[in-house]
Amino acid sequence: MNETLTRALSGVLYVVVLISATLFHQSFLILFGFMLLLAIHEFTNLMQMPKTIPFALAVLMYTLLAVGKTPDWINIFLLFIALLSSVKATLFLFNNKATNLSKTEQQLYLLGYIIIPFILLSKIPQRPEGYVPAAMIGIYILVWVNDTMAYVVGKSIGKNKLYERISPKKTIEGFLGGVVFAVLAGVLMAYFYFEQSLVFWALIALLVGVIGTIGDLIESKFKRMAGVKDSGKIMPGHGGILDRLDSIIFVGPFVFLLYQIINYVS
């Protein structure tokens, strides 16, 4: 089968499964739990880590913390670990001398870069008024708009490399184009679909465009360290689950934080 057709069919199937599962709370939790295990498998392969303890830890934490309501102090603690891991990963990304990770760093990223973001993402649609799938579907759409338009703009007018050493194809023009179109999409969704303000969804779109791109670059650096092109092979033409979700899982804690701030001040 033609590679472009294979990639297109695989991408459509991924979108259909993701959105369909997100419409219902139980299927959403099951799908994200399954994707978490796939992400653990791929990450431990990249880092050449043993799998037994990471799998057990992921299953235990996801079962206890993602399913059902947890106390606010636990959510704050999880958010702190995730944000700490995000800052450290970002510093690692821009440290040209850093070419490997210590065992402690691997364990921190396993927890704060993979497991906890999945847990926090699972909590985003669990609003006080009940399960709100649109909260997650909106994030998916913004990520897809950002990625697509960054590619289109970069291909069309991109000349200046964004971070050539890690991702040679990304351009500054593409990055800015992705952010602008994501913010525009956020404003349009807020106007026609969501109850939250235009400013709220514009902020989420800005987070997706900027922080999501950093997450994409971090995963690219992990793959370069491992000497592989893709994190896995589960999606023909697209790579692994981390290749598809790198932006979402990295931006997830920041979106969760934004929701907590909005809930606190409202």
Report a brief summary of the structure:
The protein has 266 residues and is mainly α. Helix content is 75%, strand content 5%. A two-stranded antiparallel ribbon has the order 1-2.
Number of discrete helical segments: 9
Poorly predicted runs are: none
**Which of globular, elongated, flat, extended, rod-shaped describes the shape?**
globular
Overall mean pLDDT: 89
Structural class: mainly alpha
* Portion in helices: over 70%
Using the CA coordinates, give the radius of gyration: 18 Å
Going across the major beta sheet, what is the strand order?
Answer: 1-2
What oligomeric state do the depicted chains represent?
single chain
Task: Note the main sheet.
Answer: 2 strands, antiparallel
What are the defining features of this structure?
266 residues, mainly alpha, two-stranded antiparallel sheet, two-stranded antiparallel ribbon, 9 helices, 4 strands, 5% strand, globular
Give the helices and strands, then pairings.
Elements (H helix, E strand, L loop, with lengths): L2 H20 L2 H23 L4 H14 L6 H22 L9 H21 L2 E2 L2 E2 L2 H24 L3 E3 L3 E5 H21 L5 H29 L14 H25 L1
Antiparallel strand pairs: 1-2, 3-4
Helix pairs in contact: 1-2, 2-3, 2-5, 3-5, 4-5, 4-8, 4-9, 5-9, 6-7, 6-8, 7-8, 8-9
